[in-house]
Task: inverse folding
């Protein structure tokens, strides 16, 4: 049973309480009575940092429904901060569920690392990949850390609250306890000196389940939570030390919802997520295409001046750090569907035009087939994964923005002859005086039958030499290939050759070439 009152463990404070007993009017959230806090706000140690971060998690908040809501606070943050939207994974990596979603936000790594695939939290590895509050407690124990949740599993299984100096843990009576959390967190912000806070609101998810994301009740729930967020921001601005502090505010969600209500599957609506941030060094009005849900933890560390240890294995990057991937330069020139009737006409997401310095060789390519996928294409996650659900295209989590894809499976969905045979060629990179050259990239590859995927290197424009081939699935993993530089070589280019016939696909992204 939850416990009322405050208990002290070392410098940590825990306030756990059942939901207030006041009934919520069935007519809507706005009519919910004020929750009565069981006790005063917990006491935190005095903070030590002028750089401070508030992370607010809004469960099941589908970002495209914010536009339909009033949501003045969220819309102000969008105008004055950076707003990155992206899609989640789906099974078999993990379901579009809260357990894996909040684990991804908190740890800064994808489910294939943190191990949480569903709401049982079976397989979790928070020892290797702790949440950002736990990590901060390890590397900056002098920071004052606070957490407030009313989905208690986030505390029970150690997803969010470990490391916090004080925490509020309530049951999932969200209409009451979201307000209680707001009341007590506002008190903490006005009257104490926390450094980093994680605050969770759950009512948007509850209303999504009960009424659907297309319901006016869902947009009403967004407006109520927006009001709670506004109160927290007003409390920050009312702090007597606010002028000397550098505050970052981050808002994120763990998954989307279907129009009818529910999540866990692989539809685009269930996979929708966002990261919204405002603070020092974060551009106003930016709409990056390369943001992912794993970027929350990395942004927290960056705003506190903490350089993550590579041993942490983070998959995320700070939200204001842009990708240097050449494929992302193609975003303004992406087109809509040609043959892919399952993709809405308004979704722009593919081109055959390679980035500057790159080229595609299709002289051995078969004829016909689906126009979008005839030879190497450049596409976005939403456009490509809409082509066919539940064939692991949703697992392309480590690609960002625009990526290169060779997809013989989709190409073969329209009459064709011959085989799929296409080669993507990089620019020439200088290697004079280097002993070795290293190619780094991210790959999603599915193997079937006689298809082949090869990486070849050509020095000084000479005959390409095979340096790696793939014969088994590689499900969104970083890859590194190091090749010795021949004596006298001054340049190298790499080739990615994919062949097949109604087989699977090969994705590459994040290409980087360095010498040593």
Result:
């Amino acid at each position: 049973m939850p416990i009322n009152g405050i208990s002290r463990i070392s410098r940590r404070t825990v306030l756990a309480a059942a939901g207030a007993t006041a009934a919520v009017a069935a007519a809507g959230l706005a009519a919910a009575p004020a929750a009565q806090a069981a006790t005063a706000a917990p006491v935190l140690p005095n903070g030590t940092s002028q750089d401070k971060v508030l992370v607010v998690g809004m469960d099941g908040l589908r970002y495209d429904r914010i536009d339909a809501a009033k949501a003045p606070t969220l819309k102000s943050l969008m105008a004055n901060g950076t707003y990155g939207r992206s899609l989640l994974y789906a099974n078999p990596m993990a379901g579009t569920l809260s357990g894996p979603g909040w684990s991804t936000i908190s740890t800064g790594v994808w489910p294939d690392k943190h191990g949480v695939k569903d709401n049982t939290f079976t397989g979790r590895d928070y020892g290797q990949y702790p949440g950002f509050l736990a990590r901060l407690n390890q590397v900056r124990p002098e920071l004052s850390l606070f957490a407030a949740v009313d989905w208690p599993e986030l505390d029970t299984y150690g997803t969010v609250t470990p490391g916090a100096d004080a925490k509020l843990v309530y049951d999932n009576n969200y209409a009451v306890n979201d307000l209680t959390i707001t009341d007590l967190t506002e008190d903490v912000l006005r009257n104490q000196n926390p450094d980093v806070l994680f605050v969770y609101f759950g009512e948007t998810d509850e209303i999504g389940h009960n009424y659907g994301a297309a319901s006016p009740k869902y947009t009403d729930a967004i407006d109520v939570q927006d009001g709670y967020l506004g109160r927290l921001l007003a409390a920050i601005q009312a702090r007597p030390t606010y002028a000397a502090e550098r505050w970052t505010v981050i808002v994120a969600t763990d998954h989307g919802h279907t129009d009818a209500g529910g999540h866990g599957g692989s539809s685009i609506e269930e996979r929708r997520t966002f990261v919204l941030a405002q603070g020092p060094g974060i551009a106003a009005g930016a709409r990056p295409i390369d943001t992912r849900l794993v970027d929350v933890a990395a942004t927290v560390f960056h705003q506190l001046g903490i350089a993550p240890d590579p041993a942490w294995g983070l998959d995320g990057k700070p939200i204001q750090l842009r990708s240097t991937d050449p494929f992302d330069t193609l975003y303004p020139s992406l087109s809509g569907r040609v043959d892919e009737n399952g993709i809405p006409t308004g979704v722009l997401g593919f081109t055959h035009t390679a980035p500057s310095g790159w080229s595609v060789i299709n002289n051995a390519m078969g004829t016909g087939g689906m126009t979008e996928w005839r030879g190497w294409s450049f596409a976005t996650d939403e456009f490509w994964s809409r082509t066919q659900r539940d064939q692991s295209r949703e697992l392309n989590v480590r690609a960002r923005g625009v990526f290169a894809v060779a997809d013989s499976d989709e190409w073969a969905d329209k009459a064709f002859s011959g085989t799929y045979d296409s080669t993507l060629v990089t620019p020439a990179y200088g290697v004079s005086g280097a002993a070795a050259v290293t190619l780094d990239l991210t790959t999603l590859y599915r193997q079937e039958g006689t298809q082949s995927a090869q990486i070849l290197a050509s020095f000084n424009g000479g005959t390409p030499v095979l340096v790696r081939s793939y014969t088994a699935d590689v499900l969104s993993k970083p890859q590194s290939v190091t090749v010795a530089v021949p004596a006298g070589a001054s340049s190298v280019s790499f080739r990615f050759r994919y062949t097949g016939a109604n087989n699977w696909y090969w994705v590459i992204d994040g290409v980087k070439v360095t010498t040593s």
